[in-house]
Recover the amino acids of this structure.
């Protein structure tokens, strides 16, 4: 049964139900007809007995017993089935017609015995009726039932099979169409039947799944292309530095300088590769990060201390704001540090000398938040929705020297997501930006 098609299974069940229904119907008809035929015969027999008893009562004359005998013979002769009537006087002597012994005992006859009391005398009455008619009717009925049931069953099952095949045909079509779709033609879609039924929903679900897959595959290939592109630049730079230096004999100082340059570039490349690896792993769906209860204020102060070193180089001021009472979140400590450091690092990178960076912890109605605010160059409105995209940079030129590959905020957002937190950005060009992490209510 496990390998049967749905159509075959439906038909089997349908036939079984039909068979049970037919059996019940046949048995019911049989019982009702048999009962009503027997009842009719019994009523006729009872009526005949009553008529005979009345006859005996009317014609009984104590002075002339022979009169009753004569009257009964006449009565019997005048009634159909008269020969199936028998009346015996109190002594057991037959006084009116006779039912022969074979008839009386045969199972093809139905009999009714009764008594009539006249003048203190008990007369025994026996009437019989042939069952031949009833038997014939029942035999025909049985034939009709036995022949029609398999016919109905056969027609019903074939019809059921045909209907289920018809109903399921679109499923086969969907299967066939789905089989032709692979990674190379992910933009293909299944035809959606307009019937508004389960199959339409199935096709639509398939199509939206294909759309999601297509988008994911596109993102992946875009990522691979962008990643290769990003890696080419620093490696080309390293090669160029080496080549240029080797062109002719140089002083020890120049060699040292070139090697230092190469080391810096290698460091940047390593960081880039680390970021790429992290994002690639995040796509593969890493197991959940182990979460702890983390107090936000001390952690934020730590980050700011680290940021201080970066900020001082660029003559920026960095400060923290936090409420008096401790604010806790469920977080993975190292991941959360990385996220905040990325935001502080950006604030430092995109704020000109003399600017101000504030990292504040707050308890909002929606839950705990950490905001990194700067008085930097800001982000244009058109670019704001894209800053979390991988490899996205606002105007390549303005931050080439800052060395970002456009991966920082995608990593920050990925970390936020793993914390069920939201990362929001607001910014005014020339005034500054604010990046806010909104944690869910603990
Ligand atoms: P990058 O490594 O280039 O900094 P990110 O993903 O961290 O990449 O940021 C994407 C882009 O968003 C950056 O190129 C920058 O233009 C813009 N950006 C990010 N943070 C800030 C900020 N605090 N102020 C202004 N622009 C920002």
């Amino acid at each position: 049964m496990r390998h049967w098609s749905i159509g075959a299974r439906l038909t089997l069940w349908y036939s079984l139900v039909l068979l049970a229904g037919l059996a019940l119907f046949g048995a019911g008809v049989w019982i009702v007809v048999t009962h009503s035929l027997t009842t009719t015969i019994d009523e006729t027999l009872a009526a005949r007995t009553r008529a005979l008893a009345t006859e005996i009562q009317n014609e009984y004359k104590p002075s002339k017993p022979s009169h009753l005998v004569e009257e009964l013979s006449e009565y019997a002769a005048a009634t159909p089935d008269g020969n199936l009537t028998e009346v015996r006087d109190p002594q057991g002597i037959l006084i009116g017609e006779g039912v022969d012994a074979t008839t009386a005992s045969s199972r093809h006859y139905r009999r009714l015995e009764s008594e009539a009391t006249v003048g203190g005398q008990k007369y025994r009455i026996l009437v019989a009726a042939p069952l031949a008619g009833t038997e014939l009717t029942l035999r025909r009925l049985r034939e009709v039932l036995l022949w029609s049931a398999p016919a109905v069953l056969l027609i019903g099952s074939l019809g059921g099979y045909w209907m289920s095949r018809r109903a399921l045909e679109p499923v086969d079509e969907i299967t066939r169409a789905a089989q032709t779709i692979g990674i190379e033609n992910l933009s293909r879609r299944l035809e959606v039947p307009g019937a508004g039924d389960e199959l339409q929903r199935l096709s639509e679900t398939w199509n939206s799944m294909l759309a999601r897959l297509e988008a994911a595959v596109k993102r992946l290939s875009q990522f691979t292309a962008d990643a290769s592109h990003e890696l080419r630049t620093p490696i080309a730079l390293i090669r160029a530095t080496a080549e240029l230096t080797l062109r002719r004999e140089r002083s020890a100082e120049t060699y040292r300088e070139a090697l230092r340059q190469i080391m810096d570039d290698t460091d940047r490349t390593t960081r880039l590769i680390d970021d790429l690896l992290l994002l690639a792993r995040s796509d593969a769906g890493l197991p959940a990060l182990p979460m702890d209860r983390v107090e936000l204020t001390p952690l934020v102060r730590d980050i700011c201390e680290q940021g201080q070193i970066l900020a001082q180089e660029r003559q920026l001021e960095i400060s923290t704001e936090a409420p008096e009472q401790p604010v806790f979140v469920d977080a993975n400590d190292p991941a959360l540090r990385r996220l905040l450091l990325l935001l502080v690092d950006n604030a430092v990178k995109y704020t000109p000398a003399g600017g101000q960076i504030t990292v504040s912890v707050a308890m909002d109605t929606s839950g705990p938040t950490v905001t990194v605010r700067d008085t930097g160059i800001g982000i244009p409105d058109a670019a704001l929705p894209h800053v979390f995209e991988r490899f996205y940079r606002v105007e390549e030129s303005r931050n080439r020297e800052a060395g970002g590959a456009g991966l920082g905020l995608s990593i920050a957002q990925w970390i936020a997501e793993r914390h069920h937190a939201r990362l929001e950005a607001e910014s005014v060009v020339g005034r500054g930006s604010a990046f806010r992490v909104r944690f869910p209510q603990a």
